[in-house]
Amino acid sequence: MTNTVIELHGIVKDFPGVRALDHVDFTLRKGEVHALLGENGAGKSTLIKILTGVHPRGSGDIRIDGTAVDIESPRRARAFGIGAIYQEQYLCPDLSVAENIFANRLPRSGILRRVSWRRLHRMAEELLAAWNVDFSARDRAGDLDVPQRQIIEIIKAVSESTLKVLILDEPTAALNDEEKGRLFGIIRQLRERGISIIYISHRLNEVFEISDSVTVLRDGRNVGTCAVSDTSKAELIKLMIGRDLAEMFPKRAIAHGATILEVRGLRRGAVIKDVSLSLHVGEILGVYGLLGSGTVEVGRCLFGVLSPDAGQILVDGKPVSLSQVPDAVAAGIGFVPEDRKVDGIIDLLSVRQNLTLAGIGSLGRMGFLNRKTEEARSRSWVERLAIKTPSLETPTASLSGGNQQKVVIGKWLDSKSRILILNEPTHGVDVGAKVEIYTIVEDICAAGAAVLMISSEIPELTALCDRVLVMYQGRVAGELAGHDITQENILSLAMRGER
Ligand SMILES: Nc1ncnc2c1ncn2[C@@H]1O[C@H](COP(=O)(O)OP(=O)(O)OP(=O)(O)O)[C@@H](O)[C@H]1O
Ligand SMILES: [Mg+2]
């Protein structure tokens, strides 16, 4: 028993209309990396939030180092040495990077206990240096992009000196391969120091790369715990979704038509230096680049969120000016944002309202909504994407992370845009739904649309795209097609700007 850090017995947790955890037993050993797997809505984040005092457990026992405890608040969890990086980000956008990292332990000095800003910034810079990041301790957190903010959360959690258990809820969803490598290095160091890690991810490769044992949740129940060396990907998928699933996605051949979108010499500030691209009807064009390479900004320029300094954008061969989002929508462009919290879903709206939003209200087109049609349409998305929700009227904010992402995707898939810009479309989405989304993306292309897919998930690009543009320092470093779309080629272009 001595090497058991956390032991859960018979944990039950109910939310209105859902039993999120149903008599879950779970054991975490000292110095192990324990992966927690399961479909969207299986109960992973809920389990974590019970361990970190965010949610009270409904019933069941929690033991830490053999002693029965109550974790009634996040503060108490920290006192037990439990730290977590959540799926949603909790940084304060108006505070600096340094203030965010040291929020609950700002260095103070003198009899007035004033915050010592110099020391704070030095301490933060030291941590940042180890990560080789491209932002500084004084930057405002709100000005950074999703992966940068994710890195801050990670740095913040691992810098707590009392840390005994670190929980990572999909830490790599927004990271590219290089950043992921750095994170794994840190996880290994922590494990050597005897710290236990609970690792949640929808990427099975990572589970085999980094973890020692694995637990699978399905519908709130623990359906299996074993050593990673005793299982296989196929077996884990089957445990998760209750059926077999081919891991490889068969790409369909779709005929390409005329050029639907063309970008010439796009420039914006220091981030986009020169980008030209073309997209044809029926085509799926992937865009890959490391943090700061400009991929995200190109997507934003094409949706009128950012305005370019120079360059031309043509839709159906005609120049368009996309100075604001409605211009882009009017030009037939749809956009799945990288950060659903900021610009994707409206939390308080129901699943039904969100799913039919892009098609109607946001365009400002007046007209009567036919409630019946709206309901039927959203119901069909809920079914197709297997969105786990108690009802169509449930506020989107109370869904699990991956199910919220499915709502964002469904909303734009429903909008019938002719040019769809997908930014990390399967970020946090489970294996079964990923395949479904890929199928729908192909359906959309076959029906005469075209897709620009910005993704940091290389397997997704190699499986789905006809061509992949790789960006390096604000420019297109190269374009890959057919058999040339390989992980090695993509990474070499992204890291060195050449093959
Ligand atoms: N605050 C909440 N209010 C109401 N229901 C909730 C709340 N949080 C979670 N749920 C529900 O509990 C269930 C489990 O959700 P949870 O967030 O634990 O899933 P998850 O395994 O983390 O999924 P994902 O992979 O999508 O993040 C889901 O049905 C979800 O809708
Ligand atoms: Mg979750």
Characterization of this structure:
This protein has 499 residues and is α/β, with parallel strands linked by helices. It folds into two domains: 4-241, Rossmann fold (3-Layer(aba) Sandwich); 259-496, Rossmann fold, CATH 3.40.50.300. It is 33% helix and 26% strand. The protein has 17 helices and 22 strands. The protein has helices at 44-51, 74-79, 97-101, 117-131, 146-158, 177-192, 204-210, 233-241, 295-302, 325-330, 340-344, 351-355, 371-384, 401-413, 431-446, 458-464, 487-496, and strands spanning 4-15, 18-29, 33-37, 59-64, 67-68, 82-85, 108-109, 114-115, 165-169, 196-200, 213-218, 221-227, 259-268, 272-280, 284-289, 310-315, 318-320, 333-336, 419-423, 450-454, 467-472, 475-481. It has a six-stranded mixed beta sheet with strand order 6-9-10-3-11-12, with helices on both faces. It has a six-stranded mixed beta sheet with strand order 18-19-20-15-21-22, sandwiched between helices. It has a four-stranded antiparallel beta sheet with strand order 2-1-4-5, covered by helices on one side. A hairpin with a 2-residue loop joins strand 21 and strand 22 (475-481). It is globular, with a radius of gyration of 23 Å. The N and C termini lie far apart (53 Å). Adenosine-5'-triphosphate binds next to strand 2, helix 1 and helix 14.
List the helices and strands and how they pair.
Elements: E1 4-15, E2 18-29, E3 33-37, H1 44-51, E4 59-64, E5 67-68, H2 74-79, E6 82-85, H3 97-101, E7 108-109, E8 114-115, H4 117-131, H5 146-158, E9 165-169, H6 177-192, E10 196-200, H7 204-210, E11 213-218, E12 221-227, H8 233-241, E13 259-268, E14 272-280, E15 284-289, H9 295-302, E16 310-315, E17 318-320, H10 325-330, E18 333-336, H11 340-344, H12 351-355, H13 371-384, H14 401-413, E19 419-423, H15 431-446, E20 450-454, H16 458-464, E21 467-472, E22 475-481, H17 487-496
Parallel strand pairs: 3-10, 3-11, 6-9, 9-10, 15-20, 15-21, 18-19, 19-20
Antiparallel strand pairs: 1-2, 1-4, 4-5, 7-8, 11-12, 13-14, 13-16, 16-17, 21-22
The protein binds adenosine-5'-triphosphate (ATP) and magnesium ion (MG).
